[in-house]
Each structure stands twice: as C-alpha cells, then as structure tokens.
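Discussion board: Methods & Data

I've been asked by a reviewer to show the raw model output for two of the constructs in my manuscript, not just the figures. I'm not sure how much to include, so I'm pasting the format here to get opinions. Each protein appears as its amino acid sequence followed by a line of discrete structure tokens. Is this the kind of thing reviewers expect to see in a supplement, or should I convert it first? Here is construct A:
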Amino acid sequence: MRRALVLALAVACSSAALAQQAEDDDALFRPRAVGGGPAIAFVNVSTITSNGGGATGACVTPNQSTTTGNHLVCFFRHEGTTTSVSSVTDDGGSTWSTPAAAYVNNADAVMAGMVYAENITGNATNNVTINLTATRAWFMCACAQYSGVPATSSLDTAWGASGIRTGTTATNTVSFTSGTTTGAGVVVCGVSNNNGSTVTTWNDSLTERLDGGGSGEIAMGERIVASSTAIAPSMVFSNTTAGAGVCMAFKD
C-alpha cells in the first residue's frame, strides 16, 4: 500500500512538472504584441468645454484624472474662418504636439482640430488649455486618455500622411480615406457639426467614447487593433448638417 502511494505521488509530481514546463515553453514562444509594450487601452475622457456663442481664444478641458506615462488626445472645434493653435498647456506640464495637418475646415466654416501629448505627467484634476491665435465663437474641446502608447514617436505614419487624416461633409456623413496601420495600435477620431446633431453610427468598428450632441457638438471615438489593419473611419450624424473631423493613428 505504502509503495503504491509513493508511486502515485511520484507520478503526480512528474505530471505537474511536465505541465509547468509546457506552460513555460508556451510563454517563451508566444508571439508578443507589436511594439513589445503593454497593449493600448482606453482610460477615460473629459467632459466637453464650450464657450457658447461668445468669442474666445482659449478652451480649457476640466479636471480630468490623468496618470503619468499615459497619452492624451484632445479634439477641438470652433466656427468662423481658419486660425491656428498658438499653444497647448496642461497642469502637469506635459509636452504637446500641434500638427498643422490635424486642422481642417469645411465649406460651412466648421473648424476641427486635434492635438496630443505623449508620456504625460499625471494629475488628479488635470486641465488642458488649447490657445488659438485669434478668438472664435463656439470654441469647444475634450480630451481622451490612453495607456500603452509609446512615450516617443507614437504617430503611425504608415496609416496616413504623418499619421493624420481629415474629413469634411456638407450632408450627414464624415468619411476618412482608408489606411493600414503598421501593426498594433489605435486610431482616435473626433468629429463635429454645426447643428447640435449627435453621431448615430460609428462605422468600421469604431467605439464611441463621447458624444455631446445638443450644444456639445463634439464626438470622439477610437478603434484599437492588435495587428496591421486597414481602417477607413466614417461617422453618421442624426440629421443633415455640415461637419468636419480629424483622425490620428498611434502605434502600440
């Protein structure tokens, strides 16, 4: 009896050791995410700030909890003629990129733009201030936060010119030219209109994160992919209205 028990224990230990070795081998040879870092994930989005119809040159997103090392993408819109972004700051002192290619207007003078910050300095109640070179009415902004984006050189330039695509519409759909990401990553989009219309449909598997509708007139969403993927975003408004949008692709 004792010999049988010892033999059974030996077999059990041997089986456990073999199972652990198989698990270790699987982990060793399992394909890793492109970029080698943690997978990109959506963290949170700020509320929308609006100056209403009054003219102002600054828009401040209110009290967003942010984490050091994460990535912020801020979308803004205003009405009137084209101007430019003079500066972007936040409470954590993060460094902001303001690519001119991420600023577009449609025929109805709805302007849309996007700015971003890599490897941010976190703040429990972070405020981002976007400053224009001129005052504009209906200046609105909001920011989305992501983890897992590279600390430097994060724009995926394979997806579009400088990793950026813009789109406009005079009807009810803002569409963007298709592009193929380098590998794993995220395409973040913002759209706006001039009629308080909500976004009823996010095409090409985009996930909505924010839709102000009404007086908000800002919507944001994204698509996170695990490998090289062709993405052609489009968004449908709830009624016929002029609109504009910007999408940026970031690498894993």
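Construct B, same format:
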Amino acid sequence: MIWSSDAAGTLLYMGEEWDAFTGLEAITVFDVGWKSAAHHDDRRQVDVFFAEALIRQSEFCITFRLRLASGAYAWVRAGAVPSVSIPDHEFIGYLGTITEMNDQTVMPDAVCAEFGSSRVMAYEPETEAHSAMELIADHVLLSHSFAVKVGHQPVREALETSLIAVGRALAQGALAVA
C-alpha cells in the first residue's frame, strides 16, 4: 500500500488497497486516523516513532501489527523516504509503503523500528494499481528499494527525486478528491 504525508505527519494519500486490507475506507484514515488500525499494544510505540521520524526528517522503517478487515492482526513493515521541495530542499513530508510480512519472514515479538534507512522495506506491489500514478509509484518505489539494496547512491538519489514528484502528484490527487 502506498501512502504520503505532509511535513506535520498528516496523511494525505492512502492507496486503495488499504480498504480491502483493513476494512477501513481510506478517506476515514486521512490526517492521523490510520493509527486506529494499529494494534493497541503497538499504537504508542508507532506514534512516538513516527513523531521522531518527523523531527529527524530521515528515511525510516517500522514493523508493527495492523488490524485486518477480518479483525485479526498481521505484522506489517512500513517504510518511507522524505520528500523535499525543489530547489530549497525543505522537508514537505513522506512517501512510503506498508507491506504485509509473509510466512517466509521471521516475525518479530514486538515493534521494531530504524531511522536513516528504508532498506528493510523490500517493496513488492501486492495488488493491482488503481491509477496511473499508483502504477508509477509502484515502479519507482520498487526501483528505489533495489537501488538501496545494491548500494548504488547516484541512482538512489535520482529515484528519491522521482519519489518527491510522485508523492506530490498522489497528494494533490487525494486533495482534489477530498
């Protein structure tokens, strides 16, 4: 699931996969409503971590439990890269993904988080994109994840510039609908 936020952490866009995954309509989770889907035992840690990420304005990844449409919980991995304005490089928010951890992944016992890297965010689109911009975001995020994995800094930086543009486009589209 693709998401974007502004510099204050307000959720501006959530991919349509969110609806099927959590049973909550994406429109109901804008601003900070998405946190209600986090497991009650994880919510405070997720909230504190996300607040710190906004202060640091750096890449991050976090693993926590998210409520499914069935009412059960699944471990998910969320990761994001900062979006900055051009040309002054002012922090304007995040573009990120949320991916369900699969059976081949060692499940954590508790919330785990890391600043300065989204490298554990091995992004692989699990559902079909619902718009051309979501499809573009899928490909740019996948490419970014691979560039981070192989350690190619110039390509990673170029893709981060693309992520900024995609994040803006998604947020503007979401704002136009709201």
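Answer (T.O., handling editor elsewhere):
This is acceptable in a supplement if you add a one-line summary per construct. For B, something like: Residues 2-177 form a domain with the Beta-Lactamase fold (CATH 3.30.450.20).
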